[in-house]
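Weekly modeling sync, notes
Attendees: S.R. (lead), two postdocs, one rotation student

Agenda item 3: backlog of single-chain predictions. S.R. asked that every request posted to the team notebook include the full sequence so nobody has to chase files. The rotation student volunteered to paste the first one in as an example of the format we agreed on. Action items at the bottom.

Example entry:
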Amino acid sequence: MSRLSLLVLCAVMSISCHKPVAEVPETLQEDTTTAFEVCLFRPGDYGSTNWRIPAILCLSDGSLLITCDKRKYNENDLPQDIDIVSRRSTDGGRTWSEPVTIVEGTGYKHGYGDAALVECANGDVVCVFVGGNGLFASSQNDPIRSYVCRSTDGGRSWSEPEDITAQLWGSQALNSMCVNYRASFFGSGNGLRLTRGDHAGRIMFAAAMCRLNNNTLDNFVVYSDDNGHTWQVSDRAYSGGDEAKLMELVDGRVLISVRQSGERGYNYSGDGGATWGTQGRWQCMNTNACNGDMLRLSASDQNGKCNILLHSITNSMQREDVSIFVSYDEGETWRDPILLFDGPSVYSSITRLPNGGVGVFMEQNPDGACELWYKYLPPSQLPKCGDYKK
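Predicted structure, as returned to the notebook:
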């Protein structure tokens, strides 16, 4: 896709965030062939000073579910007072429900944040997140805590949070390797449910754990074979890691993509995420240390003519120019970035709609503080098998 066509795409998608939240022009309300965007949260909305940390998931019934941090008094991370809220759309992102509070912060060191989502094989939606102390201030006596909430009605309501901290790290850790850690948090955005092979149905999230005696982060995978009721922890997936995302490949392997400054990190698992190979870094994705998301657009073993993966991330050494990189070789290389926002922008999450289009939920901060936008890219403006040229 040429630079000119990318700029045209951005122009087509331009709708002012200063219009009422979630407003879409009437001409687009029934149109699935045209890109559009909707501002879902901006500073001051719903009584909150700031908003951050987008996650989006298209559920099996075609509805869209988003979560984000309601950072009530400032834009800072935990241990600030933060709520996690969700919204739903049943019309492809054109209109959205009012926010539903998944979990409510009640003061300094009593907030929550960094949510990630997955839909289980039984239709339940599992949301994982953290709360309490800040990551690098966490200790065994005053920890940052990891939680699980569940929705059985597509995100309309949520269970009370279940604290699974002790299972992940510390003296009671499920994996003895994790005894030597003092904190953990999940890579916000999408989790993963496997659909192939012996581990089909397994759900998993990438966690970044902080070592006991310094601030180095390592990645482990937290996974469940019973729709999120009990959990296991993998061997170390990436040493010196950070926020990470997971993708199932057509040959059954699991790919992990890891936030790094410069060349992004990766590794592969051949046993459903339990053990991992030799980590590496992608020279073709050289970006700012930022959180993004991965998505499968096409699979050759699932009615697709070829394999296409998408990866959202900043296309800059600064926090700007969030784009979607494309892989035609199952993540070995990435190319042809599609520009989503020309300017200051940070975290992003992406999902595939039933019509083959892509929904993006992302942070844009042209005026300094983050606005959270939903963007729709129709199938006609996404990569095709015929686009690939070596």
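Discussion: group reviewed the output briefly. The mean pLDDT is 92.
Action items: rotation student to repeat for the remaining queue; S.R. to check formatting next week.
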